[in-house]
Amino acid sequence: MKSFILKDLYNISRNARSMLFILVVFAVFLVPASGVADYIFVCAILCSMMIVTTFSFDDSSKWTQYAMIMPVSRKDLVAGKFVVLAIFCTVGNVLGLALGTVSGLITNKITFAPAKVGELLVFTLTAGAVSLVFGGMSIPLVLRFGAEKGRVLMLVSFLIPSAICFGVYRLLVMAGVELTDRLISVLLCCSPVIALIWCYGMYRISCLIFSKQEL
Question: Is the distance from CB of 122 to CB of 39 less than 8 angstroms?
Answer without folding.
Answer: no
